[in-house]
Amino acid sequence: MSGAPNLANAVINLNALREFSRRELVEVLDSVRGRKGLVLDPTFVGPLGLVAEVALIKERGVDKMYHLVPERLDTECKNVVYLCRPKVKYMKYIADHIHQHEAEGAKKEYWVFFVPRRTMICERVLEEEGVYGNITVGEYHLDLIPFDEDVLSLELDTAYRECLLDGDRTSLFYVARSLMKLQSLFGLIPNIKGKGILSRQVADMMLRMRREMGAEEPTITPEIDTLILLDRDTDMITPVCTQLTYEGLIDEVFGIQNTYVDLDAEIAGPIGPNKEKPPPGKKIKVALNSNDKLYNEIRNLNFSVLGPLLNRKAKEIDEYYKTRHGAQTVSAIRDFMKKLASTQQEHNSLNIHTNITEKILGITKDPAFHRRLEAEQCLVAGAETETSAEYIEECINKKDPLTKVLRLLILLCCTQNGLKPKQLEFFKREILQTYGFEYTFTLNNFEKLGLLRKSDGRSTFAGLRRALRLVVDDIDENNPSDIAYVYSGYAPLSVRLVQQAFRPGGWRSMDELLRQLPGPTFEEGQVLPNGVSYTPPGSLGYAPGEPGSTDRPVTLVFFIGGCTFTEIAALRFLSEQQQTDGIPRDFIIATTKLINGDTLIDSLVEQVELKRIERM
Questions:
Q1: Over the stretch 299-316, which tens digit does the pLDDT of each residue have?
Q2: Do the Cβ atoms of 328 and 44 come closer than 8 Å?
Q3: Of 139, 149, 144, 196, which is closest to residue 175 (Cα–Cα)?
Q4: Which string of DSSP letters, residue by residue, matches 565-590?
Q5: Helix axis angle, 421-435 relative to 385-397, nearest 10°?
Q6: CA 162 – CA 158 distance, rounded (Å)
Q7: 233 secondary structure, DSSP code
Q8: Which of 300, 303, 195, 199 is nearest to 244 (CA)?
Q9: What is the C-alpha end-to-end distance of the chain, expressed in Å?
Q10: What integer pLDDT is reported at residue 535 of this predicted model?
Q11: Are strands 554-560 and 586-591 parallel, antiparallel or unpaired?
């Protein structure tokens, strides 16, 4: 099964976006004549694999590929090509390689292609290291990468931290440029809505970039009806809650990286065409995307309903295999053989997902998991907050993983609109005494972001919870009627905002409520270029089947700062439902990074190198 998703069923032609990036990669590699060695930023290898396969890269004269790491680069290639994110540490690694080769008398030529853009600070570092004159500098403008038929990601690991903690808004420029590229391929987006200060800045950048284009802007009939920009900061409750969809729990337990999950050999099962048993301890990469028919069917389900469905699938496959005994005629045998390959593939997928489910089930049945889940659900419901605070204290005393403690503490703080001063100081002191005083800087980071703060006396979240129905009782996970099924009763605030945007009155009808969330709320209309007309699907005068049009309006929801798999599942659920305005809608989800609570917390942890002080 191919790792890159098949995009044939996407509501807009995302293959065009992928092909755009493939062509530019080919141009980058072809710009370096002759055989070459390719040195890749390790964080960039996975995303690049969703754009181009190794065979394509080898065809462009690449003899060998290396990771950009802080160690020697021993290569016989005369031409050395670096593809990396614009980070200072990588510039130092590159300088060390060049100095190493010069000291050894090896004559080589170097190219550095920054992804997606070069930065002045990186070029300055290369100058200070004395190697800038040895390098030809270029850019590879890879931005939004199709992760699936309806998911795009920039895979900027530290965008949330850089924008809101470090004061570096470069990521917003990348977001705006990526949206301009989408508009060049799929037409101008007529409607822009947004919530948050980062979203406002991205929208302003887009409008400015359009003005700078002048007469050069493409005259294409719009395929995307509405763009919704959402700051991650608008809803910090959702990512710190434990995800309860199948895909979300896989991410929580194993971690999904670039549509792949690393599984132990006993979970992944036999590998290769000969079904060889992998060696013990070996990790197997398994692709998780819509290419896998079974996974596509179960990924968005609440985990609690998965067992019976997998049992039913097993019975269906078993019944199919039994039909071979009754195939007596040539036509019957032919019919059996037609489905054999796809059924065997589905059988293999069933084995993998049954093993994954059993592994996750062992965790979700643990009383410790239930206690954590109960604490989270009490906090979002505004019930028994003192009991939840005591549970957090207990987690610290048991020295549970710090990421777990910080997720719960942020949830307590966000749902209670801050902590009492004594309570906040108590938790900070307990964390430092238990986990080490090097985490002082990490706690400072969370305070700067307002994720840990003193109470201001207001009850903001309580009002939002009531007005937006963020807590839904009696959820039927087997046959859900509300997006709250993804957290077994809690509806993601971010997705509720999207839902509200298309109800009668839209965001304007809840202006006072939205003011309680950080950042401005805005709606912009873009005037289409001369000669371009657009009639939204479902509106008066719309003719189905017009060139470049779909029968359902397409909405692009862009999460700036990260998006979870449960939010994706909730938006997919919305697209399957009849919207309250009577018009079914297709959603495409874009983000700076696919995240979960642990990865978000990890990006904010301050790495402190502790040096031992020798006694005299």
A1: 999 999 999 999 998 887
A2: no
A3: 144
A4: HHHHHHHHHHHHSPPTTS---EEEEE
A5: 20
A6: 6
A7: G
A8: 303
A9: 62
A10: 77
A11: parallel
